[in-house]
Amino acid sequence: MSWEEDLGRAVLEGDEISTVRIAGEALEAKANPQDILQRGAEGIIEAGRLWQQGDYFLPDVILAAEAYREVMDRVAPLLEGDGAGGKGSVLIGSVEGDAHEIGKNIVVAILRSSGYRVVDLGVDVRAADFVEKVQELRPQILGLGAYMTTTMRRMPEVMDALQTAGLRDKVKVMVGGAPLTAEYAESIGADGYGADAYDALAVINRLLGVA
């Protein structure tokens, strides 16, 4: 198999040692760093799909996410001078009280491999922290993730905080997560809703007017 197939399989299997080795071999072969990220992302996307249909368990997805992080750590620094983030800038995080990150990490992987500059604030992010980072970084997109019905209620708090800070019209707000719907996103005044990682990419492309 080619390194492209090997890398995606290594990430899917959560094999960090093989992931590092294959990514290194791809770099030595002068592969495009963006292509390496894309191939690695395919593995974590497949892991997420298998989890959703019940063929993978959460520990399997976590291992795949850790393996992909190894790819990011090895390759992302090489993109800084290679037009990384040319499509736009995204700030993303899971809202306060929500410690789920698998879905968010898949979205981050897809966006980065598609040419977006992404700052990931992690999980359990307070509304005030989102506002502070929007003020500091001035991203084009703010992505809010909620993966429980109890935490999705935090999203309106972020929207209100942005409005109070005079930042609401300075950034497009994208929301996503298992309990959310397009109707809910509209009801809180979000600019977009992603049903899954690829849908999130498509919506962000549309919001920013990029191909």
Question: How would you describe the overall organization of this protein?
Answer:
This protein folds into 2 domains: 1-84, Orthogonal Bundle (Methyltransferase, Methionine Synthase (B12-binding Domains), Chain A, domain 1), CATH 1.10.1240.10; 85-211, Cobalamin-binding domain (Rossmann fold, 3-Layer(aba) Sandwich). The chain is globular, with a radius of gyration of 17 Å. Strand 3, helix 7 and strand 4 (172-176) form a beta-alpha-beta unit. A 5-stranded parallel beta sheet has the order 2-1-3-4-5, sandwiched between helices. With 211 residues, the protein is an alpha/beta fold. Helices cover 53% and strands 12% of the residues. Helix 1 (3-12) crosses helix 3, helix 2 packs parallel to helix 4 (58-75) and helix 4 (58-75) runs parallel beside helix 5 (102-113).
Main attributes?
211 residues, alpha/beta, Rossmann fold, 2 domains, 5-stranded parallel beta sheet, 9 helices, 53% helix
Write a compact overview of the structure shown.
With 211 residues, this protein is an alpha/beta fold. The chain has 9 helices and 5 strands; from the N terminus they run ααααβαβαβαβαβα. It has a 5-stranded parallel β-sheet, with helices on both faces.
* Helix coverage percent: 40-55%
Give the number of domains: 2
Q: Determine and state the CATH class of the largest domain.
A: Alpha Beta
Using DSSP, what is the number of strands? 5
CATH architecture of the largest domain: 3-Layer(aba) Sandwich
End-to-end Cα distance: 31 Å
Describe the largest sheet: 5 strands, parallel
- Name the poorly predicted regions: none
Spatial order of the strands forming the largest sheet: 2-1-3-4-5
